[in-house]
Design brief:
Helix content: over 70%
Organism: Chlamydomonas eustigma
Main location: membrane
Radius of gyration: 29 Å
Number of strands: 3
GO molecular function, one term: xenobiotic transmembrane transporter activity
Protein name: Protein DETOXIFICATION
Shape: globular
Number of helices: 23
Largest sheet: 3 strands, antiparallel
Low-confidence stretches: 1-89, 174-218, 220-275
Distance between the termini: 28 Å
Family: Belongs to the multi antimicrobial extrusion (MATE) (TC 2.A.66.1) family.
Oligomer: single chain
Strand order of the largest sheet: 2-1-3
Mean pLDDT: 68
Length: 646
Amino acid sequence: MDLRASRILGLPFSTFSLLKRSNNGAIINHKCTSSSGSGKFRLRPRPQEIKLAKNKNCNKNSSKDESCTRKSDDSASALSDNGTVRSDLSNKQQHNLDTEILQIAWPMLLTLVADPVAGMVDTAYIGRLGAAELAGIGAGLSIFNSVTKLFNVPLLSVTTSAVAAVHGASSSAVAAAHGASTLKSVFKVPASPTDTAVHSGVTNPTTNNDSPNYEELDRVQAEARPANNYDGDIMDDAPHILAGLAGSGGSAPVAVNHPNDTSDHTPPTGPTGTPSFFTRLHLDPQVAEAASSAVLIALGIGVLQMLMLFQTHVLLPTWGILPGSDLLRPASDFLTVRCLGAPATVLMLTLQGVFRGLKDTKTTLAVTVISNLFNIALAPLLIFCAGWGVKGAALSTILSQALACVYLMHRLSLGHHLLSPSMGTLSKVLDMFKPTGMLVVRTFFITVVYATATASISHAGAAPAAAHQVAFQIWMACSLLADSLAVASQALLTSSLASDDKLRARMIVHRTLTMSAWLGGALAVGLAMFGNAAATLFTSDQMVLLFIHGIMPLVILSQPINAAAFALDGILFGAGAFQESCKVVAIASAPALICMVLSTAYTEASTRLLVVWIGLLLLMIGRAVTILSDVYTGLGKFSWMRHNLP
């Protein structure tokens, strides 16, 4: 029996026997992992246990001492003493994780780019109506974005983490339950009454002579493997499962699916067996309840935003649009209609957060592209053909966002959960949304820094202000690449920590920072080669271009720092450190604001512009250094970075 067990688990017989006898038959201090390539479970003891077992086996044959010692040291080197990820991780694991990060990041990048492109097209349409209409809609958009983004951006981040946490925990429980069923049936362990739900429908992979049927074992274990195909630790309940196998033959406690879980955990397919764009997803009940709770909260916030934006008589004068101004009529018309779409805006972002939490950014990409194409096609009909002007532009945006919301709601199949929400789940999601207040403060600090920079440069004259605007647009466009990487790391890290897979969490941090370093370097090289040429696409004014050339070295220098800062933001959100993120931005904003205030003392425009951009660079350096120090010292939410593996 022990020989068969050691063969199945992929261990030398001496190692299995030694571990079996420890702690009165209970296998301790180990992880049960599944290799995505072979589908076979293997036992991973602590490095000390590996060394003891290997030495015992090697002593029987002294001629193999050197090779045995080398293998033992190699096995132990997979884990580092201080719990950080070592450079000797397998290339296959790194490749799998890199692929998974990019599969989320690339669609997310295209999604982030789609909205600005559609906005530029809308601006071109409105520009044909006249300068007053263009300036009025610009003021209206500034008011709308200021009111909504303070809440919508934090809601998006928190929703992504909340859904990813529930989804990761659910996937881990399913993998543990299926793995326990498979191992018990292989070794014919007597099942307890509580195992009925697990064993029902599972074929006993043994033959009449009590030999394990390895082909059947591989088939069942392949079905139990998580969807992410990660080649690492997937079963945190492995000690309990294997304790029953190594003991006297009693059954081990098994984690089973939620009793109301009728989902098949498989991707939806169309009539031909291929994934269908219109087929509803079959979510785990706990994931569906968390998503529906987030949607209900978002709808409530959207209604409050709409009521706030209705107060145009208060908001417009605050933005300097006073009675008698040529901008008053178009700004008021646009904002009055656009505010009706506030619930749709926040709902669409929240639904995108749900799909991000499920690590599905391709769906949000497709929906964003289709809705923006719909907006681009509908806007000229309402603006020019119907003669509705700026009201038509606002209505076109609302309808396109509503279309996206209807599809995403249909895809998630949340109707039942919205009509009868679980109060327990709603309470848990509300707890997850508590950090939103801190994220609002964080967004406020960043907004103040950017606004102060613009105000300081505006007093220096039109040419330096225009140069700052062009450089800032290039700067923010490059940040979209790093932001897509941050979204991927947030979703993957939250899921891994929810399933208590600390090794994979460390790998995600390591690979994300490595990829951000390469990305930042590539952006810096690209801007050094083509940055000044790109500026000519925005303006042909030689004075403006001269100012741009003066600050372009700072824009180039900031790219590796920006990439690291945005990637670290994703890691921070993935670890649930929302309160810490507010503190980080508050600390980093202080030197930046001091620089910008000091810039007003300089009368020369080029010097003032340079000092302002030094302030922006200090903001990003402060964010990156502060988060990086927390991550690699294992402070606060990152304690798992310094602890040894269990």
